[in-house]
Design brief:
The protein is mainly beta and about 475 residues long. The protein folds into 2 domains: about 1-250, Jelly Rolls (Sandwich), CATH 2.60.120.200; about 290-470, SPRY domain (Jelly Rolls). It contains 3 helices and 28 strands. The strands form 4 sheets. Strands 19, 20, 21, 22, 23, 24, 25, 26, 27 and 28 form a 10-stranded antiparallel beta sheet that branches. Strands 1, 3, 8, 9, 10, 13, 16 and 18 form an 8-stranded antiparallel beta sheet that branches. The protein has an 8-stranded antiparallel beta sheet with strand order 11-7-6-5-4-12-2-17, with no helix packed on it.
């Protein structure tokens, strides 16, 4: 059971409680939430609870923080080596450090993190505890415990509370945050915020909105797009820095959406992803990218747009087999099927195999056109259709429901994207959670999920965990 609880939540569990929204943070935009503190309920006791989905690992990124000054500070962050750390310093001296031995790199999953502090406890190891998906972390590369009755900076009168950044520093967070609580004056167990699903053993959220949050406490549910800093517990709202309504997301722990996977080595160049894993690759040529979700059944739809490009506009959009991604030496282009800017449709079903080419007469792509892929995995072999601006890209006979080579029911596939001989580009992907107005048309699938520029074809669905649980 403990192993299952530690499994990151991919949102496919029927929860009985749905989290409707999250907030997308982007480091490149210097996005953050902040507000001031008054006299705390109890500076020796507090709880911070939230769900988080990372999209740009490998960087030092601050999550939740309370501070009086640069030397008097208490915060949670992801280290550049992807460890999770809690640190509390007074006058530049460490009062407490907990740095995990485990790393947090899974860009396809949501983690529930609880930090509970009570410095009045006699057992030193109990004065600060971290829980991930309901299970207490006990293995730390660095551990320094609070002294008995230490005061923290949570509840410091005149101090500040911030999400996504440390005061005066550049260590902004990139990813999604949902259902964020600060409980001032109480040290609460993770069972106040979540529970184990009886059928799967996976940790899932519960409705905790009735908790008493204390003088400085808050509950951020991110439901109000016009006021994403709203404290739903009735306290003082947070001020927004470089955050707008488009940063509200429906990617949540109870309905997890596909994004671009930042961890797959693409055999040509390491690419840069931004905007919640939906923008990029956008640096250098030869960038290949794959999605975080794989499917072997169901009908699926996604969109994208390249808003700028320099160099020869050579593109590929389609799918690639999951088994071609195992191992850093494999090229995502091996074992793929795609539409190409050469006005062709190609498949490569294995490493080193030849590329059958079909002259499909696909319409030439122009920067700014919105492309979409419809993938049908309920037939054998699979079928794909490419559209530009909601029109079949070429002759209907040659493009509509194009048979995807030998890809069949035994093959799990994921979205695939490739640019070659392009010095730079700016491509946005939309799996139903767009962060650019160009791709936000208010069109959902038949289950009511996603926001697309164009309505998905009848029977085709967004790549999200609720749809995967039904069709995937």
């Amino acid at each position: 059971m403990e192993t299952l609880q530690r499994t990151a939540n991919r949102g496919s569990v029927s929860t009985g409680y749905d989290i409707d929204n999250s907030l997308k943070f982007e480091a490149d935009n210097s996005e953050k939430l902040s507000r001031s503190q008054t006299t705390g309920t109890n500076r020796k006791k507090f709880t911070v609870s939230f769900w988080v989905k990372r999209t740009e690992p490998g960087a030092f990124q601050v999550l939740a923080i309370a501070e009086a000054s640069g030397n008097d500070i208490s915060f949670l962050d992801f280290e550049s080596d992807d460890f999770l750390r809690f640190r509390d310093t007074a006058s530049a001296s460490n009062q407490c450090i907990l740095e995990t031995n485990r790393v947090f790199r899974d860009a396809s999953a949501w983690y529930h993190i609880v930090l509970r502090v009570d410095t009045t406890l006699s057992t030193a190891d109990d004065r600060a505890r971290i829980y991930v998906n309901g299970v207490q972390e006990t293995s730390f590369s660095t551990r320094t415990n609070f002294d008995l009755n230490d005061d923290t900076f949570w509840g410091y009168n005149g101090g500040s509370l911030t999400w996504g950044n440390a005061l005066g520093e550049a260590n902004y967070f990139s990813g999604y945050v949902a259902d964020a609580y600060y409980i001032d004056g109480q040290s609460l167990a993770p069972t106040s915020f979540g529970e184990v699903d009886d059928d799967t053993g996976i940790w899932k959220p519960i409705n905790a909105s009735g908790l008493t949050v204390g003088n400085n406490g808050y509950y951020l549910d991110f439901k109000d797009a016009s006021n994403l800093g709203n404290d739903a517990s009735g306290g003082t709202d947070f001020s927004l820095t470089n955050i707008t309504s488009i940063d509200q997301a429906t990617d949540t722990p109870t309905n997890n959406f596909c994004t671009i996977n930042p961890l797959v080595d693409n055999a040509f160049a390491i690419f840069s992803l931004t905007e919640g894993g939906t923008r990029g690759p956008n640096t250098a040529e030869g960038n290949k990218a794959v999605g975080t979700f794989g499917v072997s059944s169901g009908k699926w739809y996604w969109e994208g747009v390249t808003t700028s490009a320099s160099g020869t506009n050579y593109w590929q959009w389609g799918i690639t087999r999951i088994d071609m991604q195992q191992g850093l030496s494999h090229d995502p282009g091996q074992g793929s099927a795609w539409y190409s800017a050469e006005n062709t449709f190609l498949t490569q079903t294995g490493v080193g195999s030849s590329d059958p080419t079909y002259n499909t007469g696909i319409t030439s792509y122009t920067v700014g056109d919105i492309w979409s892929i419809s993938l049908n995995c309920d037939v054998n072999p699979y079928q794909m259709t490419l559209r530009f601006n909601n029109s079949v890209a070429g002759t209907s006979a040659n493009n509509t429901d194009r048979s995807v080579g030998t890809f069949a029911s035994a093959d799990a596939v994921m979205p695939f994207y490739f640019l070659y001989n392009i010095a730079s580009d700016d491509t946005w992907h939309n799996f139903g959670n767009p962060f650019i107005a160009t791709l936000s048309g208010g069109n959902s699938d038949e289950n009511g999920y996603g926001d697309f520029k164009y309505a998905p074809p009848t029977g085709y669905y967004a790549l999200c965990s609720k749809n995967l649980a039904e069709f995937g």
